[in-house]
Amino acid sequence: MQSLSWLLGAFFLPLFPMSLLFSRVWQGLGSTRMRVLLILLWPLPGVFVLDAMDPLIPSWLAIWALATSMLYGLRAVAIKEASVWVGYMAISAWSLGWLIFAVSDNPVSPIAYVLSFSASFALLTMIIGEIEHGYGAAYAGIVTGLAQDQKALSALFVIFILSAIATPFFPTFFVLLGNIAQVSGVRLFAAVIAALVWLVWSWSAMRLIQGLLVGTSGKRVPPLLTKRKIAVYGVLASLLVVSALIDLGGLR
Amino acid sequence: MGQMGFMVMECGLGAFSLAVFHLIAHGLFKGTLFLSAGDVIGKARQNDGVPRDQLYSYIVEKNPVKSRMPWLLMALLTLLLPVTILLLAHWIVSEDFYQKQGAIVLLFFGWVTGAQLIFVTYRMRSQNLWRLFSLTVGSFVIVIVGYILISHVFDLYLYPDEDFRKRIYEAASIDLLWFSILIGILTLVIVSGWVRTYYVERNSGRQMHEQIVSRKTTYALIANELYINAFYAYMSRKMEKLALRINAWLRWL
Fold this sequence. Notes:
The complex is a heterodimer of chains A (about 250) and B (about 250). Chain A is mainly alpha-helical and about 250 residues long.
């Protein structure tokens, strides 16, 4: 029963090679709405299954989760297509969520952890959808210099990408920090690897931002976002920050 | 990054309030530079705004005068002026400053920086050396006196309890003999560096080929920060290639 739960968990809080399934489904979806739904719902069964189990996960499973996270974090470095990058980042971030189940009395709630990341990825996916709608793709190097023509869109893209890679003051930062801090008390090595994965995320994100936003604009496209949409995205970004400051990832 | 090194050094000396002040002052200074950069670039496109004076002519047109001031006078000024200014500035703040090792180390660094500044002024060989020299010394006085006075006020504000202040400095102190030896060695190293620079410049035409090569190699090593950045860039490229290869193996799934 326990092994079956772990196996199920490995599909929904993806561990390599089961992660290939999520990656395949994610890359097969063309619609932004479906992607948003998928990224919000996919990890939930995994969290419920693992949360329902009492004993902590064994070390080998925690190492496997860390290895998966590092693998996808590293793979994201070479990715130029923004939607694929989100998929890899989702796998990398969710697999780190296994560490919550590796130590007892972890103050970070697994559901808060997963939803923080999923919400950031969902918002980023929506912004990427806007870019794909206007430019036909969101591929770094082919679509360049977005900051020249799409100022508001670029700003929102940067905000949500920062949220996705767990920078302050987004909820992802506090849940990840809380998770790593708790793990460091028991398994220092695991905490160091998790922190390294965090570092690799920021590297890959900066490469993506540089490829898409910086440089001269290749194709002149009028601003894609209306003032109303900008306001809605702005409110959503503010909500992310406010929710982070209220919860603080259990670090209080 | 250099300023961060100074701040860490200040913490090590027990001068926490100075480190906090340094952090704020340097943050304001760099923030001002950063925020003004765009404006300056914009204006510089129209007019560089650099006045055509002797210093400008020297730096841009590389047009130094032939004559030099007597070296002994300049050497004395270089070494004695900063230390006098620093001693006076410290004395205004606290008469017993020489009993605190932290204050002595800061004094030492201030002296090295000040002497280096005057040394560079002398090497510029400006046509109006005394004007440049007095401007440099004037700025140095303002910076040092301002810095020491403000940091003293900051110290009093952050740590009103005198005993507590004393204990912080005492905790950061080491054995007096070792302290004096270390300060002596550092002074010797720095002064001999200056003397060596002076002689190398004077005898620049007579250097042996091997000496020049070895010096250039050392300079390249230090100028490139021991190639740490180059190593970092190399590793980044390798990791990117590895990521690409893994992605290809896994068919980008």
